[in-house]
Amino acid sequence: MNHNDGALLQCMNVKKVYGRGESRTEALRGVDFSLSQGEMTAIMGPSGCGKTTLLHCLSGMDQITSGEIWFQGQELHSMKEKRKDALRGSAMGFVFQNYNLIPVLTAVENVELPLLSQGVSPSVSRKKAMEALGKVGLHERRFHKPAHMSGGQQQRVALARAMVHNPQIIWADEPTGALDRETTDKVMQLIQHLNREEGTTFVIVTHDPRIASVTSRIVYMDSGKVIHEKRNDGGGM
Questions:
Q1: Where are the alpha helices (DSSP H) in 106-208?
Q2: pLDDT digit string, tens, across residues 2-54
Q3: What is the C-alpha to C-alpha distance for residues 168 and 28, in angstroms, rounded to an integer?
Q4: Maximum distance among all alpha carbons in the chain?
């Protein structure tokens, strides 16, 4: 059976259970989901419905309890940790609500980390990190540390870090959750631009309908299941 079907990622009947006995929680209860290359998808739903868990499972950060996840035709669900780490390092980027930047490093040092960890030479890593910071409009802040940057600037550094190695997909968990409205708009315009110009696939977990409105598809979750999907024209902000 070929699971590729042109999909970048497919998950079938994915379940995730935490704990046992009294404390047993079914976080995902049979999720079916597929992503095409170049898509921008929002995942929405009430708090605790499994959005972040789904993101962690689809990206291989969390082991699933049962079901199948195929990424680029490879079985992510049965892959050895070491291979999974390598795949995440080369094919995926991550953006979180709290930026997850390393405070003692400058912007450019934060951004070059994914490349250095893949064994790319320091000079090439530095050059590509500079280019990525240029794309997010932060070239002049390249030697600043996170503490000397605004929230919006830190999130743009995180975005540069997520895209520096040209991943197929960027996972974003509430990427604008800590930002004000104006900064949110700027970050989302940047994400839209990267999606259109670089063809990067984005999956964005969000509570914000305004963010969801710029994506090409919204997946609604409730109680650990996908309950509804809606295609968007991605109208823009």
A1: 107-117, 122-135, 151-163, 181-198
A2: 454 578 999 999 999 999 888 899 999 999 989 999 999 999 999 989 999 99
A3: 25
A4: 55
At 64, phi and psi to the nearest 5?
Answer: -85, 155
The order of strands in the sheet holding 66-71 is 25-36, 7-18, 66-71, 74-75
Q: What CATH homologous superfamily does 7-231 map to?
A: P-loop containing nucleotide triphosphate hydrolases (3.40.50.300)
Q: Name the strands in the sheet holding 201-205, side by side, starting at the edge strand that comes first in the sequence.
A: 92-96, 169-173, 201-205, 40-44, 217-222, 225-231
What's the CA gap between 184 and 173, in Å, rounded?
Answer: 14
Mean pLDDT (whole number) for 78-107? 93
Q: How far apart are CA 170 and CA 191, in angstroms?
A: 10
Pairing of strands 217-222, 225-231: antiparallel
What ranges do the domains of the chain cover?
A: 7-231
Mean pLDDT calculated for residue range 107-130: 96
Three-state DSSP at 206 gives coil
Distance from the Cα of residue 200 to its chain's centroid:
11
Q: Helix 107-117 to helix 151-163 angle, to the nearest 10 degrees?
A: 20
Q: What is the pLDDT of residue 234?
A: 53
